[in-house]
Amino acid sequence: MAVIAFRSIRQLLDNIRCVxxxxxxxxxxxxxxxxxxLPLPITLLAMNISLTKKKLLFTGPGGSLLVPxxxxxxxxxxxxxxxxxxxxxxxxxxxxxxxxxQRYYQILAAFYEEGAEGLLLHNPGPKTDYRRTDQVxxxxxxxxxxxxxxxxxxxxxxxRQQSHAISHRSVERIIADYGLQKKTLRP
Length: 187
What we know:
Elements: H1 9-29, E1 48-51, E2 56-60, E3 63-67, H2 72-84, H3 90-96, H4 101-114, H5 134-146, H6 152-161, H7 168-177
Antiparallel strand pairs: 1-2, 2-3
Helix pairs in contact: 2-3, 3-4, 5-6, 6-7
């Protein structure tokens, strides 16, 4: 059994059309009683992807599918399909979908590595609270209880002396989160 590798879906479809045309021609020239019916031409209708400023639309032989405007995953998948399968190329596909060529290849690598989950949007920035760790929070609470009249700047200075990097604004946030503000007395 021979295995033939195709560079793209378009090349595969072209080869299938060529084989179908050859089979149809063979059956026309070599008619037999078993094959007395003229073969119907086999044509493969291609899917079309259209993108305008307001909508993304997949159109095929059976109908069309309108993609919601805010669906970034479908836009990324459509870009990859057009760039890899439809012959548009990475640069033109990226430009069409308002991405850079570099970002196109990043999305493609994520798709190869993780599949459809690689197309999900990831929030930038730190994933953990690396400045306000549990230990630093405990130190701020401890300093606040030991000296309730100390300001956030003084507490931050005391914690920095213990070799923890923290700003007075982070101390203010911790105090606000735990409700350790000084209560103002109203007359």
